[in-house]
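Case study 2.
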Amino acid sequence: MSTGVVGAFRGAAVVVVVCAVPALGADAAPRFTARDLTPPTSAISGAYAMSSAGDVVGIALSPTGDRYMFVDRAGVRSIAAAPAGAHQFRPTGINASGLVIGQFHPSPSSPQPVSFVSSAGVVTPIAPLGPRGGSGDGWIYATSINDAGDIVGRSTTASSDFEHLFRYRDGQNTDLGGEVAISAYVNNTGVIAADRFVNGSGSWPYRYANGGGATILSVGNTVTGISHSGLIVGALKDTLASAGYLYDPTTGQKRTIDTLGGPRTLPNGVNSEGWVVGTSDVTGGLERAFFFDRQRGPVDLNTLVDGLPAGTILTSAVAVNDAGQVAVNGTVNGAGRSFLLTPVPEPGAAVGLAAVGSWALARRHPRRPGLSR
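Prediction:
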């Protein structure tokens, strides 16, 4: 939170308080409004990633079954067709400049994916670190991008038969090592959180300092996200029955994220305030989108959203940014839909700002003696 003087009236200053995330009372869970992201010409949509600015990238299906990528930037949607001949085309990230990353297979028979970065509809392939073991096929999976354009993921390399983590910056790929990389996420400070196999002993979460070395994190089994403040989320176990975790590398504190009553919780995103979103099983094995913070624990996100269409069930939240916006997927009467959720400020916050404004006006137009209002 920051404060600043934005104007003055005869010596009286108007002070505006700007909060990245709406302030909440001690026992109040946030509430959200929802906007359907499904393009008008589509029957089905799914959100895949969201930027720090609230831009969302996803996949939509036309009524005839054609599959294409859409980008929603402040309600303005653009459509991007897959590259010619591409199969299993899907985005994996988007940054505040609108750069989109993802991957596709060049043919139905090709098992090796090609990663790409897309700008203004122009798709540019990202080359792998090298062919597998120096002589085999090469492939690459880009999984995260930050606002500076740094891209991370996993790739084959000529020096090993196993995939390694990579960081792609300014057209250059850097090998970050790892016997077998699984996934990686980069924040706006350049810190990377990733999980990888180590010496055949299973998957371990790692944290890569910007320009520095790697530190193993004994916090869980997998990494699924990192905030711009460095908070890390993931799953405690790589199984179908696992809780999630929230880890703060600054304090060393780890918080378990329990399920909504079923066997599994999978966090998908975290913001700098420690808000975590993802998917969780409820009793009976059904999936529901969840919201978590350190005051309340996990809550069914369906109970926190106002104005959803009748018949809507939110099943998986894919990302949350520092403004508190959430990209989420669900169904409306059985048809897949994606939504952007925006937090609603508490009434007290609005009253506080109104009071500041009233005080400023009173100072600007002081009551004259002998006059009544």
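The chain is about 5% helix and 55% strand.
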